[in-house]
């Protein structure tokens, strides 16, 4: 039993949708393993950066500002199964600001951009809220930033530099 509890991620077969202020997809164990490999690659080049913990790796589907009016409904809502996700192999760096005040983080895009947009629209329609609330959202997983805290990654309106 102890071994099962220590290795619980290995037994998750599908991604899960969770509402925790934001609506997010927690990837399956294969995607998590791939993300961890990517984190290791980044840290070889950027040893002063910090990886996001495995338990914090996720894809934000809908930002909390969009969901604020629906919080009470969403706490008890049953969500449809999300599309399976896979990671684009290209690791990208995001930079916000200039010089010594610049903040950077590393991320990887999810291949299923259109499928996730459709999923988001389905959830928003279930809420009676219409569709296309964040038309410029790029679905991604933040991997590494200065602190290892997901909230310290550069916002999704990133300027991409590779």
What does this structure look like?
The protein is an alpha+beta fold and 162 residues long. Helix content is 28%, strand content 27%. The strands form two sheets. Strands 3-7-6-5-8 form a five-stranded antiparallel beta sheet, with helices on one face. A hairpin with a 6-residue loop joins strand 5 and strand 6.
How would you describe this structure in keywords?
162 residues, 3-stranded antiparallel sheet, 5-stranded antiparallel sheet
List the helices and strands and how they pair.
Blueprint: H1 2-6, E1 16-20, E2 22-26, H2 29-45, E3 50-51, E4 59-62, H3 64-67, H4 71-75, E5 87-96, E6 103-110, H5 113-126, E7 140-145, E8 159-161
Quick gist of this model?
With 162 residues, the protein is α+β, with helices and mostly antiparallel strands. It has five helices and eight strands, in the order αββαββααββαββ. It has helices at 2-6, 29-45, 64-67, 71-75, 113-126; strands at residues 16-20, 22-26, 50-51, 59-62, 87-96, 103-110, 140-145, 159-161.
């Amino acid at each position: 039993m102890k071994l099962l509890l220590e290795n619980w991620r290995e037994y998750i077969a599908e991604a899960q949708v969770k509402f925790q202020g934001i609506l997010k997809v927690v990837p399956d164990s294969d995607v998590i393993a791939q993300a961890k490999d990517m984190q290791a690659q980044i840290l070889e080049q950027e040893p002063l950066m910090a990886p996001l913990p495995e338990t914090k790796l996720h894809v934000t589907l809908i930002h909390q500002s969009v969901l604020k009016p629906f919080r009470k409904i969403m706490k008890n809502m049953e969500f449809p199964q999300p599309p399976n996700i896979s990671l684009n192999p290209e690791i990208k760096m995001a930079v916000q600001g200039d010089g010594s005040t610049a903040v950077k983080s590393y991320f990887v895009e999810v291949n299923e951009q259109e499928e996730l947009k459709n999923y988001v629209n389905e959830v928003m329609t279930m809420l009676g809220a219409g569709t296309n609330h964040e038309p410029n959202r790029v679905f991604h997983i933040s991997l590494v930033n200065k602190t290892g805290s997901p909230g310290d990654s550069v916002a999704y309106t990133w300027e991409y530099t590779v």
